[in-house]
Amino acid sequence: MSNAELAVSYAALILADDKVDITADKLQTLIKAAGIEDVEPIWTSLFAKALEGKDVKDLLLNVGSGGGAAAAAPSGGAAAGGDAAAEEKPAEKEEEAKEESDEDMGFGLFD
To answer: Are 26 and 20 within 8 A, CB to CB?
Structure first.
């Protein structure tokens, strides 16, 4: 991650922690106040558009819970996120078993 991306990420976290809407102007203001000069305005615009209408704290809390939990989180909260993560584990085991069965066929990719 470049210094510009890191600076914008930290600025977005600061704004989210203060419960302030994340906009390109506010991100740029925080970055300039920190004395970081090498951040192009495109980074603040990209981050502002990507985080528009999203709760950054929820994004951080659901990082490791998988795709199903992130979709369930807005309607069901943390309990639904835990249930969705538990439901995904058997599917992962099935995929692993399927991959292992392909290896038993007696030929490989480079045979």
So the answer is: yes
